[in-house]
Design goal:
The chain has about 375 residues and is α/β, with parallel strands linked by helices. It has helices spanning about 1-30, 95, 105-120, 135-150, 165-175, 180-190, 195-210, 230-240, 240-255, 290-310, 315-320, 335-355, 370-375, and strands spanning about 35-40, 40, 50-55, 65-70, 85-90, 120-130, 150-155, 260-265, 315. It has 2 domains: about 1-30; about 35-375, 3-Layer(aba) Sandwich (Rossmann fold), CATH 3.40.50.
């Protein structure tokens, strides 16, 4: 009996190992999932194309074309004379990547158009990636952006931090390899495409479960504005602010060490208190809306404080962006007119700052303040 049990266990282990090896080989040949993080490393998808389709009632074009260029970002490839350009890269999660808009209609691209109206020799790229947190932004800055050497990096970040702070999630999102035996084991595991794919699917599940994925559309419902367990999650978020502030300071320091000027942007949300100008309904009736609003503001306030103490230019988009359903197709992602509004508001704050920092690039014919406020 013992011999039979041992044989069956051995066959089971052999079958599992063989299946793992076959699956590993298959995924290395063809991986159907676009992964931007593998193990503890950000991997921007190079020369990647995607088409997304949307329904007509979302405020988006029915067909959206997304292209990641030769360095894995959205926008034109870096020109040969990049060092002589007023170059800008935007960094963030899905609200920066803007999968609801084609490459030339994202708020990053429209901001680039506004900058090009008033400055010579400009170039802008979008380094936003869905689901990325400050852990991933740090790796992206250290290993990719500082290698490109842009002059300015604009960071619209913070939304994904809300659900990346608990111990369970940090274990899967942290981009700091541990030393010793644990670090060795992680290094070995992260070489497996099966393990990396599993981690990507798990992260996607966490984002979906937290309501961060597209499809968690805003709805007016007479339900709880603060979901069950929401206050406890907010308390955890408040406790995590010192660590978040340190990550913000690290990003600022890394950019400055790379001779890059950092600019911070707070994350707006549709949720809050007040009347929606489009529907006339109360925003406080958004199911779960108060949780989103308060959680975002916890992280936005930390960003405001860090921007002040580190003397970093701050675009307080959370304060300036109108709370209007015509600008959002869910709690935080922008419709086409929303992307235009974000670009306009960012342009208003950014152009005078660029004029101060890079006067040699300014077009003599442009009145910066007037151009920023009239652009649509």
């Amino acid at each position: 009996m013992n011999r039979r049990v041992a044989l069956n266990v051995g066959l089971l282990i052999f079958s599992i190992a063989l299946s793992f090896i076959l699956l590993e080989g298959a995924i290395r040949i063809y991986n159907p999932v676009n992964q931007t993080v593998k193990g503890d490393t950000v991997v921007p998808p190079v020369n990647y194309d995607e088409v997304r389709r949307y329904s007509n009632d979302e405020g988006l074009a029915p067909e959206v074309h997304i292209h990641q260029n030769s360095i894995g970002f959205r926008g034109a490839d870096p020109p040969a004379d990049l060092a002589d350009r007023l170059s800008i890269i935007t960094v963030g999660g899905s609200t920066t990547r803007s999968v609801g808009q084609s490459d030339d209609r994202t708020w990053t691209a429209l901001l680039g158009d506004g900058v090009a109206d008033c400055f010579n020799r400009t170039w802008i790229n979008n380094a936003g990636f869905e689901g990325h947190t400050s852990f991933a932004h740090i790796d992206l800055i250290r290993n990719y952006i500082n290698q490109v050497h842009p002059k300015v990096v604009v960071m619209l970040i913070g939304a994904n931090e809300v659900f990346a702070g608990g111990a369970r999630i940090v274990e899967y999102h942290s981009l700091n390899l541990d030393g010793g035996l644990r670090g060795f084991v992680k290094n070995i595991l992260f070489r497996s495409e099966v393990v990396n794919l599993g981690m990507t699917l798990y992260r996607s599940f966490l984002a979906w479960n937290a309501g961060l994925n597209r499809g968690s559309s805003w709805t007016y419902m007479d339900g709880p504005a603060m979901p069950s367990g929401g206050e406890a999650k907010l308390a955890v978020a408040r406790d995590l602010q010192p660590a978040y502030a340190e990550r913000l300071r690290l990003m600022i320091r890394l950019l400055r060490e790379g001779q890059v000027i950092p600019v911070l942007m707070t994350q707006p949300t549709l949720a809050g208190i007040g009347q929606d100008p489009t529907t006339g309904k109360e925003l406080s009736r958004l199911r779960g809306g108060q949780f989103f609003y308060q959680a975002f503001e916890i992280y936005n306030n930390t960003m405001r404080q860090v921007a002040q103490t580190e003397t970093v230019q701050l675009i307080d988009l959370a304060q300036s962006m109108p709370k209007d359903t015509k600008y959002y197709y869910d709690y935080m992602h922008y419709t086409d007119v929303g992307a235009q509004k974000v670009a306009q508001l960012a342009t208003i704050d950014l152009l005078p700052y660029l004029e101060h920092e890079f006067p040699s690039f300014k077009k003599a014919s442009c009145q910066v303040n007037s151009a920023a406020r009239t652009r649509r």
